[in-house]
Amino acid sequence: MVHRPSNHTEGMHNLPRSPEEFQAFGEGYLPALIGFEILSVEPGKLQARMKIRKDLLAPNGYLHAASVIALADTACGYGTITKLPGNASGFTTIELKSNFLGTCRDESIRADAVCLHSGRTTQVWDATIVDESNGKTIAVFRCTQAILYKG
């Protein structure tokens, strides 16, 4: 996920802060396509949900790994916004890793994202992906975000 404010955005002031603003932020982009739903957001923490649909499954009938990664990376990317330095011009994911521990075929999954490191040039985020029907962890995810500056 790369985010740079548009030319008409002055600094980082127009970025979302509330769950409603984050929800609107993804309209017309991949987060809306996968059904990304913000549950809560605060500096350094973000919780989101994705309802399982047939088009998010692999042909074998199980949740596609890319669907899980899309939920986790979006949760961590949106979380990055909550911790951006005031003079940053954006960010981009530079590394990610996921381990799958289980799967889910219906209902919904939740991403619990938390910032582990928030520096001037990088942030490191973890997300735990949980099957909401039974509370079991189905994946763990870690990513590194590069903080971008103009000039």
Q: In sequence order, what are the helices and strands, one letter per element?
A: EHHEEHEEEE
Q: Mean of the pLDDT scores?
A: 92
- The fold-level CATH name is Thiol Ester Dehydrase, Chain A
* Major pleated sheet: 7 strands, antiparallel
Radius of gyration, whole Å = 15 Å
Helix count equals 3
CATH superfamily: Hotdog Thioesterase
Biggest sheet strand line-up: 1-4-7-6-5-3-2
Q: Helices and strands: which structural class?
A: alpha+beta
CATH class: Alpha Beta
Contiguous runs where pLDDT drops below 50 for at least 5 residues: 4-11
- Binned, the helix content reads 10-25%
What is the terminal-to-terminal distance? 21 Å
How many strand elements?
Answer: 7
CA-based shape: globular
Domains counted in the coordinates: how many? 1
Strand content: 35-45%
* CATH architecture assignment: Roll
What topology emerges from the helices and strands here?
Blueprint: E1 2-3, H1 19-25, H2 30-34, E2 37-42, E3 45-51, H3 65-81, E4 90-100, E5 108-118, E6 122-131, E7 137-148
Antiparallel strand pairs: 1-4, 2-3, 3-5, 4-7, 5-6, 6-7
Describe this structure in words.
The structure is a single chain. With 151 residues, this protein is an alpha+beta fold. The chain has a single domain, classed as Thiol Ester Dehydrase, Chain A (Roll), CATH 3.10.129. Helix content is 19%, strand content 39%. It has 3 helices and 7 strands, in the order E-H-H-E-E-H-E-E-E-E. Strands 1-4-7-6-5-3-2 form a 7-stranded antiparallel sheet. The longest helix has 17 residues. About 5% of the residues have low confidence.
